[in-house]
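dumping this here before i forget
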Amino acid sequence: MSITLPLSNFAVIDTPDLDRARDEVARIFCPHRLSLGHGAARFDTRHHVAPLTEISLNYVQYGAEVDIDPGCLGSFYLLQIPLGGRAAIQWGKHSFVSDTDCASLASPSQPLRMRWGDATPHLIVKLDTAVIARHWEALTGQPAGPRPLEFEPAVPVDRGAGASVRHLVEFMAQELSCGRTTLTTPFLVQAEAALTHTLLGQLPHSLSARLLARLPEVSPRAVRRAKEYIEAHLGEAISVNHIAEASGLCVRGLQSAFRQHTGQTPMAFLRELRLQAVHRQLLQAAPGTTVTAVALQYGFAHLGRFAQDYTRRFGEAPHLTLSRH
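structure:
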């Protein structure tokens, strides 16, 4: 019985040739040295790439012990989550073992070297430096500065914020792997923003101390602008960054003001309005309308979770609302 690999519908490399694998992977990431480990007799590279709006989500395996030396990444960050096995990571002066409980997050400013074990497939997120800088400014209202922000390279993913990061990445990969979600749905736009904000807001890095600064008071008028923007863009692929920009606040200021004035987050408010919109449309549906079509219209790409949220909110499953019409 064959096993379907993550993101298999986005396969771009499948080769037993080391030189070809190195050249093809270099086109996706960056030039690097790639060599077989001691005693490796077989080699089988697979690389699957899903290019999302701001990041790329990758599945990579080599099928053998390999040494990988890209040096300084230069223009991007790499979040690498092993799905099995072990990898020895050296980033700058930091050396550690990465496994299913500990991911690695390499910033572009220090040289990276790795030795992957012979059964160490990874889910990898590539984030450009410009994306991180843009999200940092959206999150805090402050520029990141001339040097790239540096994360702590070892990320425990069996607890805390690291576990949230792993769950977000695995969830996006599962949704894309099964074909339920297209690359530009509102769901994925929100998931990308949530991932980047979790990295910046909850993982340790060189600018973490700035997040402790006290936020200024925000007038209710800014919250009203945010609500009006949400109401006008219910069916569009919007993230908390878009809402913050429309309100004139940074993301942290928006989230704080929203909790203060409404008792919920901006994204929870967006989800509630979308559920209400689906409910209204199902009650007024034309013949031939389906629950799936209406849910997707308002950004609910994960239909199982949508059905649970809808039932919890309205006390009945969405197909029952539609059938009562």
